[in-house]
TonB-linked outer membrane protein, SusC/RagA family
Amino acid sequence: MYHKINLFKFKKLIPIALIFLVANQAHAEGLTKNYPVFSQVNETISGTVADQEGSAIEGAKITVVETGASTTTDASGNFTISANIGQTLSISYDGYVIQTVKISSTSVSVKLQSKKGATSIEEVTLVGYGSQKKSDLTGAVSQLKAENFKEGMNISVDNLMQGKIAGVRIVQSSGEPGAGVNVSIRGIGSIRSGSTPLFVVDGVPLNNDPVSAQSPNIGLGNVQAKNPLNFLNTSDIESITVLKDASAAAIYGARGSNGVVLVTTKRGKKGEPMFTYDTYLGFSSVIKKLDLMTADEYRGAGIDKLYDHGGNTDWQDEIYRNAVSSNHAVSFSKATETGNYFASLSHMDQDGIVLNSSFKRTTARLNAEESFFDNKRLKVKVNLTASDIKETGIPNGGNAGSDGQVIIHALMANPTRSVYDENGNFTNFNMNAHYNPLYLLSVYNDKTNTFRVLGNTEATLRILPGLNYKFNLGIDKTMSERNTTMYPNITDRTPKGAYIQANLDSYNVLLEHYLTYDFNLNKHSFNLLGGFSYQKFKNSATFFGVRNFAVQGAGISPEINPGYSGEAFIPGAGTVQENELQSYFGRVNYNFDKKYFLTASLRADGSTRFGDNNKYGYFPSVAVGWTISNENFLKDSQVINELKLRGSWGQTGNQEVPNKITKASYSLAQSAGYYLYDNLNLINGVLINRTAFPDLKWETVEQINMGADFSLWKNKVYGSLEYYNKTTKDAILNIPSPVLSPTTMIWRNSDGQIVNKGFEFSLGSEIIRNENFTWNLDVNGATVNNVVKNLSVSEIYSGEVSGPGLSGVTANIYKNGYEAGSFYMYHYLGVDANGKYIYEDVDGDGAIGQKDKKIFEGAIPNFTFGINSYMKYKKFDFAFSFIGQTGGYLVNNTALDLNINNLASDRNVLKNFYDSGASFTNQPQLSSLYLEKSDFIRLNNVRLGYTFDINQLKFLKSINLYVSAQNLLTITSYTGYDPLVDTSKQVGGNQSLGIDYTTYPSAKTFILGATVKF
């Protein structure tokens, strides 16, 4: 039972009380030091600061002990400061021992010594509700820092992780700027609840629901909502931490089943205030063109002469363009003895490679932290970001069918047609469901404006030494308006025009209280955590539509004044959804003598999404670790510097299901009506639409993880190895109901399971490190073996393909003993002497029918990998990254639409279909002819930079100029635009996997950029 209603008003008073307390603090403790007075300084001291290997250290703080004067080193480790001969310099930098140097001349050279244990395994890593040294971790946790994702043009957080963390797969649903991205960690774990991890930004868990308005279908499909993470300016991000196993993610309970991604934004750092200006200019083009028949090849194919229209057009060249993008970002950061500050402002303007598509984003951020009272007893932190996004889209909805997709119109367009007729107007194809793609773009206008604010206030009060209370109040507010107009046109898609305005208002509020207690007893170290969390989500959507308005260019556009002309065909309508999550959580971290580690956690989550009989779910975890390298027999090893073994077990949950599905639903309908009076008028009766099921509970993911972290040969080689076994239980499905139920389908938990298991590795090496040259190389890879077990139904279908005559045909199947979303289709064997397609007759009855379909391997790659390298030679820096995958397949639904039968209907076709000798009379069938391997290796990013040190200008620290490229080279046998793609073609809410349907192509991009530090 929920108690939050009675407590909530009291909780609201806590932040007000804290603000009142802080506002009445008259002044902070004096921060300045009194230094003895010396004679006037008359020397300029210059010097360099490097590490033990001779590599320059940027940002090291140099202080004259006697006067307090200070400065910081530039990108080359150089500094200048005013001091007297005989005075003393103090040099400090995080992770290194503070060093003092007596000034004996005007030139000083210093090498800092790394602190004991300050290696990669000793770095501080975020975990849920806190942080730990990497050496103390017992779960599978991976962290990226800002320097790991500088190269390239990245709109969203998820793009930054691509190829850099083992077991994390990033797949774009579309190459359109700002489009959604599918993120999966350790395979696909659910049939219908999605596989997207929980994203937590500066301590605020986000809702994975769309936050941009989605327009209803006006004949061109529901264009997918944009990426809900594209509101963050990626240059504001300090680190990304991925919690992969249940031990690490269980503290987030009900939403941790797909893993957790912690995003931390930048803070002010110690040293001089830093002002930074980042800018780049990008030039993008389509990653590749499909090999269609040219006009000459079309004419020479012996096709009906009526289909030769006398033109010569490459329609891909007509709709794709060389797009220009720009980005400008300024930031200011500063740290004091009591706090730190970071502020930024950025603007991105990205044109899409398809005409009329674009993405513009303006963001502002303020992060501030300050300490109060004696010895920093109270710390208050504020994180605030606001973004304004303006997008223009194209008619390319995934569920529009072939005649609602501008890209398929361009690919199918006869190359002997011309774009314009003799009068300069767009050529009218005069065909049903097939239009001039440039004309379709000209009469379609789709604009979305999304404004989002995410902020939170954290207050930490030290009650006793080691005992801290933390309060966290977070708010995520989004308002989105989408205006979609199809002007009156000559097509058979809304020929009289249609305008729809859709609005979405999303609200997410978080309230958390928790205590942490750290204490030591001789060699025993403890960290205790206990807390309460309450989060409320509310989404409201409204929409309306008008039609029969003036043609384009005449009268007033309905976008400006929809009520001025036209008639309503969608009256004002809307929906509101609310759900709440109330949680209690606790965790114990224990280590003995820095050798033996234990972590145990438990979270109880109560959700309004679930039935009255299972309102709460309980998610435990336990993990152990053994740092073997701290044992006496390895302590002095010259080979093994660090070695730790880890093992964990835990459970997490998945609550991503529709609201209110546990409750019955009713409606009034004539089909259930009856005659109440003698006048024989039929009275609507009550129809049961959904059967109540109060026993519905969470999907539960149970995971076992075994891992090892190591560092060898004085940290020249480092990395980690993992084995995982991850099983999804109690799958939530909408399946046939038992006999005598009032409805044919019912939402309930199934005995079905999805098992993902495999190995992961991350290996790195500091291959070379000396005064002039540094080279780091990191490689990661992951395997996954996915199988469905114990389904209570024989099979579940999803992945509806599109194409003429293919209505209702699905490509995916979920069946016991097979990979989730395996492919189900006819087995193509070739063509006979007459050019007819031959399919395997599985049942041997001499005819090809439904029983002849076979199950083929699915879309999930068996192996994914990434290779990342960074080199620095004096003032040059060079970085590159490769990504790749093997063992997966894609249904090339685009090729299915470009089948050989197009030549019989005045349309174009893929050249290899014609070259195969197939007959024009072959009708399209979903078969393994369109099933292709998605194996690839890609040069994902490459970057070359040069840093200029500006010693002549005191206000200018450095300028880094760079050139970079994205998606520069892809080696693959896949014939579509991009093997790393997944179009959402779900059926009945069940996930579709591995379908490529006329997806907006990816782009290859070249960038010129600069980073200027003041």
